[in-house]
Write a structure and sequence with these properties.
Blueprint lengths: L6 H4 L2 H4 L6 E2 L17 H5 L12 H7 L11 E5 H13 L5 E6 L3 H10 L2 E6 L10 H7 L4 E7 L11 H13 L4 E4 L21 E6 L11 E5 L3 H15 L4 H12 L1 H24 L4 E2 L8 E2 L2 E2 L7 H10 L3 E2 L1 E2 L10 E4 L5 H17 L7
Parallel strand pairs: 1-12, 3-4, 3-5, 5-6, 6-7
Antiparallel strand pairs: 2-8, 7-8, 9-11, 10-14, 13-14
Helix pairs in contact: 4-10, 5-6, 5-9, 11-13, 12-13
The chain binds pyridoxal-5'-phosphate.
The site of pyridoxal-5'-phosphate has 13 residues, from helix 5.
Amino acid sequence: MRYRRMPIEIESPEQLGYSSIRNNLSESSYTDALFQDIEIPASLLKGLVLCYGSHMGHEGLRDLIVKGSPVLDRHDVLLTIGAAAALFIIATSLLEPGDELVVVHPNYATNLETPRAIGAAIRHIDLHFEKGFALDLQAVKEAVTVRTKYISVTYPHNPTGVCLRPEDMQQLAAIAQEHHIPLLVDETYRDMTFGPLPPVAPEYGDHVISVSSLSKTYGLPGLRMGWIICRDRRWMETFLAAKEQIHICGSPLDEEVAYHYMLQKEKHYQGIVRAIRGKFDVVKAWMQQQDDLEWVEPDGGCVCFPRIKEPEAVDVDAFYKLLLEKYGTYVGPGHWFDMPKHYMRIGFGWPAVESLREGLEGITASLRGSRRPERG
Ligand SMILES: Cc1ncc(COP(=O)(O)O)c(C=O)c1O
């Protein structure tokens, strides 16, 4: 493995120091929850035995993760340390140096970086702004070769927030099936889809593997609770072997807290969805007033990925500097996603509405303040 730190982690708000940012528009999750928001009888935690837990993970929690699915059960669920560890386990289980992988680009950095660190040959499927960041299924078909080990997509997409229609996901699953390879769907943002929730990805077939977590929709990234859902027993056995070699099992304390959250999930969920939609409306109204920015409107998640219309007219580095230093506002610059810096990811789910408004106004002012002088 050739490990290299990723810009999205080096420059993350927690590394910069939360206290140095007034308006944090760089997060891709809903507002962080407080421990006190999760009702757990104190006696239950006090009596918790801090033993090694089940290697697959807390059974009740795994039941709740697939509750309501017509085909999935707890045996299809492996708990991991966040979706990040799930992606690492899958990549290191399925890829050897020199293997090929078809992966959507741009993407959440780990989906690209772990295959790169393994030494896999990556075939990018580029999403283009001009095409509404739509997935070109024909391009996916043409990218798959006999050396392709899996196809990797992220929907709702990070950083753009675009979604894939169920019929397109079906077609993607069919392409993977034709080649007898897995389709990995990172659906960490699924519960924030604006329209009706799509099926959980493995419902499209036994070869479809899903990754998700409690981090994003539920504002619980500090719990580090993620999972893999996979109906293929052989792959699952390999994923379990990888997990056991990395950390044996999860923390019984984290799993118990996550279990109780999931028992009460419905109590939180509708409020979260309403709050995200309200914040999205703020961003949409603001975007309509922006002459210097253009975007593809997201249809899920809590991030969007606008770009500066005329990047040559703006000193882009000065823009980010001004935005943070004068307006206390932090966004995710394009290079976090292997994209040019005049793209920026704006996370609207995390900040309080007033802070979101102030941050957006800061972006407008910083764009104005970093324009290059007109020539001539
Ligand atoms: C698409 C996607 N997958 C996975 C992760 C990792 O999330 P976590 O490990 O907190 O569950 C992220 C975090 O930003 C993400 O955006």
